[in-house]
Amino acid sequence: MLNDFTTSLRPALVLTALFALLLGLAYPTALTGIGQLVFPAQANGSLIRHNGKVVGSELIGQAFAGAGYFHDRPSAAGKGYDATASSGSNLGPTSKALADRIKGDLASLSPSGTRIPTDLVTTSASGLDPHISPEAALFQVSRVASARGLPEAGVRDLVERHKQEPLLGFLGEPRVNVLELNLALDRLAQGSARPVR
Fold it and tell me: In the beta sheet, which residues pair with residue 49?
């Protein structure tokens, strides 16, 4: 009986060790190596560098609060754009807390009641969305240009140049990466406005 147990235990242990090495070490190492060779920027987090320093990622939004910068959509992740606490607010369309927050955001963005792009007052599912719609970016041009002392036409042109089209022309929506746009804005202003994030 002990002999039967040993006979059946040995193949189980050998297979466990083999698959642990194969699926726990060899496969992930091979995929990491292929990723580093074929897509090195994406494999390392799609990092954005400014003056040789990492300032963020193309994939994770950041909070910009100053009048001289384009603002992202609101975030419900942790204390806002917290990659360790990625989530939406989980508030449903009948939630009074959500309705009150949106009303407050609408009033602060447009006291006169001008139509505001939806993504400037609603959070994304992850709370980390780095993009806004071109309409949301264009809505902010006047404020940003005024705060920076720049001509609106130049800031509007900057938004148009940073507009990303849907993948293959039909997958997704047109969008603008806010961090990349704000870095280009800093370059355009050539230091005339201090970072006020």
Answer: 54
